Amino acid sequence: MNTDVRMRGFSRRHTVEAALDILDAHLAPLATEQVALDRAFGRVLAEDVTSRIDVPGFDRATMDGYAVVAAGTEGASAYNAIRLTVIGDSFPGRPFDGVVSRGQAVRIMTGAPLPDGSDAVVPAEFVDAAGAGAVAALADVSPGKNVGRRGEDIESGTVVLRGGRVLRPQDVGVLSSVGCRAVTVQRKPRVRLVVTGNELLPAGSMPREHQIADANGPMLSALAGRDGADVELTGPVRDDGDAILRALHADADVIVVSGGSSVGAEDIAPSLVAEHGELLVHGIAMRPSSPTGFGRLGGRLVFLLPGNPVSCLCGYDFFAGRAIRALGGRAKEWPYISLAAPLARKITSPVGRLDYVRVRLAGGTVEPLATASASVLTSTTRADGFVVVPGDSEGFAEGDVVKVWLYA
Q1: Fold of the domain built from segment(s) 33-55+166-186
Q2: Can you say how many angstroms the Cα of residue 199 is from the centroid of all Cα atoms in its chain?
Q3: Residues of the chain with CATH 2.170.190.11
Q4: pLDDT higher for 265 or 57?
Q5: Is the pLDDT of residue 400 over 80?
Q6: b/e burial code for range 359-396 (CB count within 10 A of at least 16 → b)
């Protein structure tokens, strides 16, 4: 079987929807692992976390003042001070060891345990000194006033966080409050970036003569890191079959190849995937990024993205990023927010091809950027986001309200 796809053109172009259906059939979250709490931020929780304790585990003061029996303060006011005998103190971590009776008070600090027998706290600003060992209540309190009850924040048996949640700093705090020292999370996908091209210099190099610095590698590394991957990016790989094949056999869950994905004489990667694995999709009815493809090789997902930077970004957004997020237990959908606004001028698109149109927001309207070139990466830095024209649409008219996906 001849697996060399070069110089033969695309036998067919999948619709974006068909390609996504094929991709999704090969996606399932990776195995789970346990991580210590101090490494849990940003990880995807693999299972529900249920509290085995009440938080707080005791009734406590919510204000500085005096713990009392509420009934003993009835009628207290600035004109009718009620004398209370102070029998001790309660501090956070150092509770009062005794029982409070009517007519008595315990000086208490915010967060300190409420002493036995007491049921309210008179705030410090409503208390005056009344001689040695005593204070005068200048206001009455009802039972439960200025008291935080046991389990008020979290009751034992409550699911505090659901599986699938990307843990935020405050989530880590909640986990600590219920006694979690470690949590079960999805393993992060290991992603190897293979940027090909004889014309490429390592990222950050000063371009010279007919060579250019690798821009796709740093961009893809940032995108995959955003999507929860552990990323490996080495220097550019030459357009050599043996070198690219070695890169494809890296120890990773996902290989993302940038460059050499089409059907030209130097587009080696698709044939290597077809020969040594399975080329599931090659050629998609979209602009830019029509040469995008993907397949499997040795248990790894391999994505073939064009070398043109905007095409590379588009192909990653639609396919590789989706897979990386799904493998790591995240939502497959784009991690972009969207808004709706009217078009400042029309967008035209042929039926049968999905278009990814870079746009900027100006004066409450959506302005399509003039450039159509997939090699102009700065068009994405000038853009605020993009609009997708579906394959069954001829585009949008001036004034149409469209959905804009924001890069920020």
Answers
A1: Molybdopterin biosynthesis moea protein, domain 2 (3.90.105)
A2: 35
A3: 60-148
A4: 57
A5: yes
A6: bbbeeeebbbbeeeebebbebbeebbbbbbbebebebb
